[in-house]
Amino acid sequence: GAGVSQSPSNKVTEKGKDVELRCDPISGHTALYWYRQSLGQGLEFLIYFQGNSAPDKSGLPSDRFSAERTGGSVSTLTIQRTQQEDSAVYLCASSQGTPEAFFGQGTRLTVV
Amino acid sequence: EDQVTQSPEALRLQEGESSSLNCSYTVSGLRGLFWYRQDPGKGPEFLFTLYSAGEEKEKERLKATLTKKESFLHITAPKPEDSATYLCAVLSGTYKYIFGTGTRLKVLA
Fold it and tell me: When comparing pLDDT for A96 and A13, which is higher?
């Protein structure tokens, strides 16, 4: 596609439920990132995928968070047993061969 | 520890009133400094990459400059459509971006 696509745009979930967030990167981009943006905070690194290499999961805040990337393209970020502090905008970005990363529009997650 | 600090947090300008946004950084070996624009409810939009001190990049009313310790985003004769949050980031290592908290710019007509 023309840009990074994320779905859903908005998600409201009850505390304790699991959620899945999806990211379609720019076609041909081998690097994919997930970042989290909380109100008044900078973007927080969560996870990085590059081709077939093992992902860098060092930014995942707890074991309730996981992510996978199937076929080197689409990625899913899963949050289990959601908590109110998980409420934030989750941003996906992709890049290919250059340092510049291109972001999607984000998924706004609200845990009530 | 790699770090990025942006100032001011918020800035209100009259249309046509030029100003600058600051991004101070600490990083082990700069591999790139990036400026993004973020509109409400949208993801960050890439503006510029700077690699070495003395480098400058321009786009319309925006000009980004870089020294060994900071970067400036100069806005010349801004218009209301320039209102947005401007984010600065550096590469920490080969792929991890460290972002500042941004400057919220409001340009009044």
Answer: A13
